[in-house]
Design brief:
- The protein is mainly alpha-helical.
- The chain has a domain of 53 residues.
- Helices cover 62% and strands 0% of the residues.
- The chain contains 2 helices and no strands.
- The two termini are 30 Å apart.
């Protein structure tokens, strides 16, 4: 079962465009979840929208930089092999 989650291809460096698309798609999902949960707790659309917008502005920026920083960390990544069959650093 866990084999589905293990990498079967070499990891490549993530591009800026990929990080941006991941950030946007994640934030859209979080916007929906934030609005729904705040609305269910308060019953007020204005409160739900306000909290959703404010919290998602700063957390979107934080998530983007978090992803970019983690992409620079070598720990847990599979390095592509060079022609001699050795793993590149």
């Amino acid at each position: 079962m866990i084999e589905k989650f293990l990498p079967n291809k070499l990891h490549r460096t993530e591009t800026l465009k990929r990080s941006l698309v991941k950030t946007i798609s994640y934030r859209l999902a979080i916007l929906i979840l934030d609005f729904t949960s705040i609305y269910l707790f308060t019953g007020q659309i204005k409160v739900a929208v306000g909290f959703m917008l404010v919290s998602n502005l700063y957390t979107t920026v934080a998530y983007f930089y978090h992803e970019r920083i983690w992409d620079k960390i070598k720990w847990g990544k599979i390095s592509p092999k060079n022609d001699a069959g050795e793993q590149a650093l």
